[in-house]
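Shift notes (night). Ran Nucleoside diphosphate kinase regulator while the centrifuge was going.
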Amino acid sequence: MTITRITHLPAGSDFRSLFERSAVETGFLLTVEDRLGIERLLRHRGTKNAPNPPLLNGLLRHKLRISRGAPEPAPPELVVAGCHVTYMISGEGARTGALSMSPVPIPGHVLVASLLGATLIGMRKLQKVPLLRDDGQIETVVVLDVHPSPDHAAA
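Came back to this:
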């Protein structure tokens, strides 16, 4: 019996390094609190009010896989739950909203339980990434500014 080793596939540790490089290239950073918040949304079906929950759930799981841990305390330019973020979607004007882990819509808030919010969390000021829209279109979103919420600023 002959055993043939396939040498063109990376070994286990090489697979890990591919994923780590992938996370570094994406540039997403999640705080422990944000990671736990996303996991809670997924576990408790907090995305059920979204137009396409399976798509959003997939995006959130992907974000958890590819994001690196953020330093604590989080850098001021990092988009985290509770911060006020100013962003611009290609072809549109600048908008501002507070990023929220709430599963239900709140006026003036961008929900992490939306494709936009799921994309924004973990981004940094002036970072530009693809944004998947509910209708399947792919746009570009850029973070223009980030401000801590009054609650986090007082702490």
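The CA atoms of residues 25 and 66 lie 9 Å apart. Residues 14-154 form a domain with the Chitinase A; domain 3 fold (CATH 3.10.50.30).
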